[in-house]
Write a structure and sequence with these properties.
Blueprint: H1 35-46, H2 115-118, H3 136-145, H4 153-160, H5 166-170, E1 182-183, E2 189-191, E3 194-195
Antiparallel strand pairs: 1-2, 2-3
C-alpha cells in the first residue's frame, strides 16, 4: 500500500521569533498566556476596541509593580550571594530578591497576577519585557548586576557562580529576539545577514 512521500521542512541555522517569520497582528505574552489576558483580549476583540496592530495585549509595567511581596522589598538591595530556589527554604512573605533568589520580576512585563510568586517561586520572565526594553535578557542581567554588593573582581565572580547557566536563565523565552549574535558554522560572526 502506497503511504505517500514524507517531506521535512527546511531547517534554519538559527531559531527565529514568530514575527521574524510571519506578520503578527497582536501579541498575547505568556507561557502559556494567563487566563486574564486571554479574557481581556477576547473582550477587546468582541467589543471592537483593539489597540493598533502589533500591540502587546498586556500591561506595560514591570511585574514588581503588582508583586504581592513588593512591601517587603528593601529600598536598597545589596546581594552578597545568589541562590537557586532548591537551595534554600523560601520565606513566602518576603521579596525573593531580598532573599538572594534570582527573580526576573524587575525585567518582566506584568499581567500574570504574579502566579509564580504566589506559588513561592521566582519569576522566570515568560511575559517578556516591557516596551521600553530592547533586550529582555540584558535588562534582567543589568538589574541583577546592579544589586551585587561587591567591588572586588574575585568577589563578583564568586557571587556570579550562583548562576550556572546565564543564557538559559536570562534568555529562556527570548533568545531569538535578543541582541546576542549567533555563530556561523565556520566560526565567523553573523549579524543581520552579514558575516564578518
Amino acid at each position: 500500500m502506497d503511504k505517500g512521500l514524507l517531506t521535512l521542512p527546511a531547517f534554519d541555522e538559527a531559531v527565529r521569533t514568530l514575527d521574524q517569520t510571519v506578520e503578527v497582528d497582536y501579541y498575547l505574552p505568556g507561557c502559556p498566556p494567563p487566563v486574564g489576558l486571554i479574557r481581556s483580549a477576547l473582550q477587546a476583540l468582541l467589543e471592537g476596541r483593539l489597540p493598533p496592530r502589533g500591540s502587546v495585549l498586556a500591561p506595560d509595567v514591570a511585574l514588581c509593580a503588582e508583586c504581592p511581596r513588593k512591601p517587603t522589598k528593601p529600598e536598597r538591595l545589596a546581594l552578597k550571594d545568589l541562590k537557586r530556589p532548591h537551595q534554600v527554604l523560601i520565606d513566602p512573605q518576603t521579596c525573593l530578591l531580598a532573599q538572594g533568589i534570582i527573580c526576573l520580576g524587575p525585567a518582566t512585563r506584568s499581567g500574570c497576577g504574579a502566579a509564580c510568586i504566589q506559588g513561592n517561586m521566582p519569576c522566570t520572565g515568560c511575559l517578556g519585557p516591557t516596551s521600553r526594553v530592547l533586550d529582555g535578557g540584558a535588562k534582567a542581567l543589568s538589574a541583577l548586576a546592579s544589586l551585587l554588593d561587591a567591588t572586588e573582581e574575585a568577589e563578583i565572580e564568586r557571587i556570579l557562580e550562583g548562576i550556572p547557566d546565564p543564557v538559559g536563565l536570562f534568555y529562556r523565552y527570548s533568545l531569538p529576539a535578543s541582541l546576542l549574535h549567533r555563530r556561523a558554522g565556520n566560526g565567523r560572526r553573523v549579524q543581520e545577514g552579514r558575516t564578518r
